[in-house]
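Subject: sequence -> C-alpha cells, single chain

Hey, anyone have a minute? Need the predicted structure for the following. Not urgent.
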Amino acid sequence: MKSSRLIQSLTLISVLGLSACEDHRDSPNAPFPERIDFVAERQYPEGIAYSSQLSKFLITSIPLGKIGTVSTDGKYEDLINAPELISGIGMKVAGNYAFVCNSDRGISVKSTTAGAFQTAELLVFNLTTRQLERRTNLASLIPAEQRNFANDVTLAPDGTAFVTDSFSPVIYRVSPDGIASVLARDEVNFTSPGFGLNGIVYHPDGYLIVANTGQGKLFKVDLQNGNQVSEIIGTGALPGDGLTLLDGDLYVVTGGARVAQLRSSDNWKTASILKFDEVGYLGATTSVAVNNQIYTLNARIGTIGDARDFSIQRFR
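Reply:
Had a minute. Here:
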C-alpha cells in the first residue's frame, strides 16, 4: 500500500504539532449545538473522532463494519465501507488519516467463525481517497489460543500509535512505518475476568493513561521509564470506557451513563473527580475534544438490535 506517503504525512503531522489524541486544534471556532441527534440504521457506533478537513464528526460501527460522518446539524452519511473493516471500534483522526481499531466479536455482518475474538488490527484510511492505506496485524503478536480485541488507539506526536486489547493483557505499539510490537504486558494490572483494557490517551509529558474497565481502575504507563505501569489512585472504583484529555483534565466515560472529569496535581500519580455529568447519556462509549469542549457519543451499546437513533452531546 502507499506506506511511504503515509509516513511522509505522519512526519508532517509531527512537524505541525497537531494533537496526537484528537484533531481538535484545527477544529472550527463556531459554536456547536449542545446535542446532535442523528439517524443511522443499526450503526451502534463505538468510536468517535472529529475531522477539521471534513468539518464533521466521524463514527465507527460495530455490527456494520463501516465509518460514517455526522454533521453538526445531525446529517449522517456513509464515508468508508472497506471489506477489511469487520467492526470499527476506537478511532483517532490526525490530519488526513483515520486510525481505526478493527476487531471481531462475532456480531458484525462481516464476522466469521475463525475471526471471532481472533482479529485485532490497526487500519489507516485516507480521508480524501477513502482508501485503506495501511493494515497492521496485532493479533499475530500474542499466542493464537488467547482471545484478542483491539479496542482503542491513541497517537504520539511522531505518529506512533498505541492500542489496547480488551481480552489479552497487552498494549500494542505501532511505529510510524507500521511495525507492530507489544509495548507492555501486565498479567496483574491489565487483566480482568471480563472486559479488560479499554480507553487510552497519550499525555504530552510522555506517558499513557489507560482504563481497565473490569477492574474499575486507571493506570499510567511511563514511556520514559521502561514502560513502568502504576495505578492512578484517588478516584475510587471507576470502570472507564473512553478517555479524553482536554486542558490537562481527563474525561472518563463510565458505565455508559455518565462522564467524569478528573484532575491531577502530581503528574497522574493520583487524581480526583471534579464532577460527573449524568444527564442524557445512553450507552455512551467515548468522547472527542473539539472547540475546547468534550463531545460524547451515545452509541446505545449493550444490546445490538435495530436502533436507528443516536446522538452526540456536550459535557456540561
